[in-house]
Design goal:
The protein is α/β, with parallel strands linked by helices. The chain has 11 helices and 17 strands. The protein is 24% helix and 26% strand. β14, α9 and β15 form a beta-alpha-beta unit. Bound molecules: zinc ion (2 copies).
Length: 347
């Protein structure tokens, strides 16, 4: 076992504190990674605060992990010591179901193992990336292209693939009109990716306060959803709407913005039930869908796409002792646009 420094939540209501955790011995198919940076995702906060159900404490979160390979197991063929690597939302899956065999580990039929707060096959609770090092099965270790700056790569491992995978699944590209609802940690990466894919991109944000940023990130249009006329003006416009907002939205309003055959994809979901009237779906052959982050092959593809098109998230680098303050700022949307922890500060 390897003892490493980490920041953990001791309970649902207390701030995160410095602690140490044990990482398992490097098995034949494992990779030991010295973590360089870990992104802060809104999911981290929901998880440690028990918003998504009870968890076991202490819990270390973080599923946007990048670093360098320190050691590999005897049978590892895909990674070698010194490689730049990343780990995203999943760190294990059954590997034998129809979805795993297709490389769709996010949709593993036996339930994938989340990088944190998941129960791994050895019975242990997975501990995430707010830490000096981690041990992960080689199948879940991504290769980080040389040209990408490591601190900026971190948020791509969750936010990046969460947006890239629906954009690809629903064929966003030249000639398609894509709207991104919400321009936070997820949304701003979505704007950059959709633009790089060649789509015509519209941001639908609560207010116009981030318009300048949105246009800089590649948005062709920017509208405030607090203005009712936005919904009149844009009715029937979009082939694809990606909703990154997890607060309750009037879904019907957004369905009306879809073109014929358009799809509204939920990436963030409120805990309340959503209600929608059937006729606008029927009359425009429109769909409402959901999408999880993405399997390993599409995550790797996304990293290479970002390297090729120079798509990088906007980040604010922090030290570990700032995590709790960063959480408060995420909750009040006071971050442009993603916090990344310098893992040297766990030392
Ligand atoms: Zn995340
Ligand atoms: Zn599976």
């Amino acid at each position: 076992m390897l003892t490493v420094n980490a920041y953990a939540a001791p309970s649902a209501t207390e701030p995160l504190i410095p602690t140490t955790i044990e990482r398992r011995d490097v098995g034949p198919h494992d990779v030991l990674i010295d973590i360089a940076y870990a992104g802060i995702c809104h999911s981290d906060i929901h998880t440690v605060r028990g918003h998504w159900g009870p968890i076991t404490y202490p819990q270390v979160v973080g599923h946007e992990i990048v670093g360098f390979v320190r050691e590999v197991g005897a049978d590892v063929t895909t990674h070698k010591i010194g490689d730049r690597v990343g780990v995203g939302c999943q760190s294990n899956s059954c590997g034998i179901c129809e979805q795993c065999l297709k490389g769709e580990e996010a949709y593993c039929l036996n339930g994938n193992i989340q990088t944190y707060a998941g129960r791994d096959y050895d019975g242990t609770i997975t501990q995430g990336g707010y830490s000096q090092a981690t041990v992960v099965n080689e199948r879940f270790v991504l290769k980080v292209p040389e040209s990408l700056p490591l601190d900026k790569v971190a948020p791509l491992l969750c936010a990046g693939v969460t947006l890239y995978s629906p954009l690809k699944h629903w064929n966003a590209g030249p000639g398609t009109k894509v709207a991104v609802v919400g321009m936070g940690g997820l949304g701003h990466v979505g704007v950059k990716l959709a633009h790089a894919l060649g789509a015509e991109v519209t941001v639908l944000s609560q207010t116009m306060s981030k318009e300048e940023d949105g246009k800089k990130f590649g948005a062709d249009h920017y509208y405030a959803t607090s203005e009712l006329e936005t919904f009149e003006k844009l009715a029937g416009t979009f082939d694809l709407i990606l909703n990154t907002v997890s607060a309750k939205l009037d879904i019907g309003q957004y369905v009306n913005l879809l073109a014929v055959d358009g799809t509204l994809v939920l990436l963030g979901a409120p805990s309340e039930e959503l209600s929608v009237v059937g006729m606008p779906l029927i009359s425009g052959r429109r769909s409402i869908a959901g999408s999880a982050n993405g399997g390993i092959p599409i995550t790797q593809e996304m990293l290479e796409f970002c390297a090729e098109h120079n798509v990088l998230p906007e980040t604010e680098l922090i030290t570990a002792d700032y995590i709790n303050e960063a959480y408060e700022r995420v909750l009040t949307s006071d971050v442009r646009y993603r916090f990344v922890i310098d893992a040297k500060s766990f030392a």
